[in-house]
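Ticket #4471: structure output looks truncated?

Reporter: J.K.
Steps to reproduce: submitted the chain below (667 residues) through the standard prediction queue, then opened the result file.
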Amino acid sequence: MITNKIIQNFLHIVDQMRVNDIAGFLLRNDIILEGLRFNRSSTLYELVRQRISLKKPTSTCIGLHDLARVLYLQGEFEGWDYPYYKVVRTILFGISDPYIHEPDQSPDWQIAVAIGLLLMEQPGLNITEQVPIYARQDAVLSAIRRLQGQGYQFHANDGHVTWVSGELERACQIMDAAVSAYGGWPLIRRIFERLYPYLERGRYVIIRHLAMAVREDKPLEIPWGYLLNLAAKHLKPAVPEMQSEERFESLLELSKDIVATLDLEPYSGVEVAMVSPTRLIEALQDAVVGDACFSFEQLRPIDLFVMLETLFKAVDQAEMKRELGWTVADALVLAKIIFGPDTRPCHSFTFRKIRESTNLSNAVIKAMLDQFTHDPTQLNTEFFKPNDIIHCNLNFRPLVAGQNQNRLLIAPSISALGFYIALTDAIRSYDTHIDEKVGTAAEQLVSNLYIQHGLQPVVAPGFYEVSGERYECDIVLETNEYIFFLEVKKKILTRASFSGDVLEILTDLKSMFESQIQSGRHELYLRQNEVLYFSDGTKLEFHGRRVVRISVSLLDWGTLQDPLNTGSFLQAFMQTNFGVMSDQGTSAAVKKINAVNIALNKLRTLEFQLATFHHAGRPWLFDSLFVSIPWLMFLLDRCHDASAFEAKWRSFHAIRKPARNPYFQIL
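Returned output as attached by the reporter:
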């Protein structure tokens, strides 16, 4: 983390050296300039590297790229009279090691800065004027300046430009009041009218653009999730004079600027694909909070139907009938009514219409509707700021009570997720083992999906022994080119994680690390022995095929499951060990962090063992994936046999689209 102290130390060193006789200073430190080359391979760069660079990141190191970005942002915001960031950029021009000791008043840092200043004067070395390399920071600053023009105040602190205390709340109050005046239902209709072009096979595939070249312009993204959660908080009928196009556009502009100040959006594919360990925590927060602001969780109704039919087979239906007054089969009937082919955003249902569409009794229908319907006065009542996701309950139920006993849904793909969550919550109220039952059934669901699309698993599950120890593979698939090890986990991404709680993000991700350990162990034994013999007599032969390890979650985890991000984060995790954060130093936090570190250490050990088989380095961006069951359903929509699946996977494997959306990768 770049702190105010680090920034001030660096500025002080630069200011000292700027008024110094640099050649004389270097000579006094036994550095003779005569005969040295002033180019990218210059001995001067090696001298800098020797003094401030680290080969591996430590708990106290910082990144050179991070320091340059921070100096640019704060310098532009505060109007510094000297471009301090250019000193760092010049050093970066010839140093590939990105990790450095914190700047201090030591001779090492004085020498490094002196050399940087000297090199800045050499023609051709100062590249910072040629291209807009800080598009992300420029976008944040532009939003801040527009808000400053409206009277809001900001200040620089620890490498960020943030709102002065109380100012974000003031802006959010104005935004909240504007949405309330516009009306929640009219705003929801407008939102989904705008999103209609992104509707693909039953879900909205919202693209968060990334520039692939530094010269590309990238507009501010519209924070659809933030707007939708505010609209759900203020559900009320339309007041026609309040719904002008001008008012709608002003809502979009204010929401974009408010969220832009949170600095959540990377502006290039390179930034996403190459996350530095020094920025890993911030990058994780950017990903999950960004998802909550710019998008929303979804589940296609057709996928809901499949999940209802398969995940709850272990539920005792007679007991459920006694406890709740209805069964999973009854819920499936209701789901197929409210998520019919004609259902659209803001769709309404009457009790009579539901009753006429089924043979279920009035009592059963009423009991289910009570479970599946929001009281609109209790929807997102404490949601206020863009990252207040922990206070959102929109996804907890699929329907909203309307006038005259009508029921309304927000949008099919949003409400289908609410239906699934409400159903599991209802069962959990009397059956505390429902999550384990669903987790076990999820493995069978994934296996069945592949069978239905012409790809018979090698095993599902399969057991084998190594040195007297017994291991389990959830699902193994093979094609001519690939071997897939799939490990299915029931863990979902919590609302605390979506709000940016670092400890909760890491704790949630531990299930993914554990599944990668399991599948990595299978890969290691397969590569070592060229064959795996399963206890049922089945064998899996390697034949030099590409091995893909897939962690499968029950529901979507958003950007964390975009393959560009998954591979990049895993690479950074391999170089990171987490200590207990000072503001979360409770015994519970210690246990959670220790559990994360233990899992990461196991994964690192495994990767070290596998490294002997990957002479060019393991291709993390392609061979370690984190996906969801709904994503697999979406992928398999267009695969009708094994050859179609392999062709689809080959295409997916070869291309990574910069969109921050795992579904966009397989369109």
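Triage note (M.O.): checked the attachment and the full token line is present. The mean pLDDT is 90.
Status: closed, working as intended.
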